[in-house]
Structure formats: C-alpha cells, structure tokens
Amino acid sequence: MASAKQEWLVIFPDHEGALKKRLEVRPKHIEAIVADGGKGFWLMGGALLERPLDGTEAPPPSVGSAMLCAANSKEEVLDRLKADLYTTAGVWDWNKIQIYPFKCAVRTAMDEVK
Hints:
Alpha-Beta Plaits; 4 strands; YCII; YCII-related domain-containing protein
C-alpha cells in the first residue's frame, strides 16, 4: 500500500558565489517547474534573500531556495531535487540542504496581505 503524500519544507542554500550561475539558468529552471506544476509536487517555492529587498536591487541578492513539496517520502523529494537544473548546473549546495516533514496550519497568498 502506497503511503499518503506529505508536505516537505526544503531549505536549500546555494554554493558560495553561485548567484551568476543561478541567474543564468533561472529561466529554464522556472520553465521546468511551471511545466511540472500540475503534477502536484511543487506547492510553493522561491529565493532565499541575503537581505530584504528595497525595490532598487536587480538582481535580487539570492543565496538559496525555499520550497514546499508534496511527496510520499523524503527519498522522493531528494530524487526530484537531484534532477532539478539548479542541482545539475551546480547552484545548490547539497552539503547544506535541510528537509523537514511539514504540516501547514495557515496559508495566505501574498496578494491577500494588506
């Protein structure tokens, strides 16, 4: 019997000095995630920032990624992340990855925040 999907919170720092590579491959990384979006693995994701944005910084000072995934196991999460472009291009630092089982209590879309 297959286990039920669980949410997983992933904190994935970049390799030191990987911002240039991140920006170079980002369009294809996002394209692949959007194409995969209807399959239910990616629930939320975005860049970890070095500091809050002031509206003038381009590119944003990204230092990693945070994401919420739905999977049957931690191993499934790892397998999917190993195939991601940020892994194969050398952006994410696999020595610093953190993965936690997660149970969301509240969800509010940013456009609903006043």
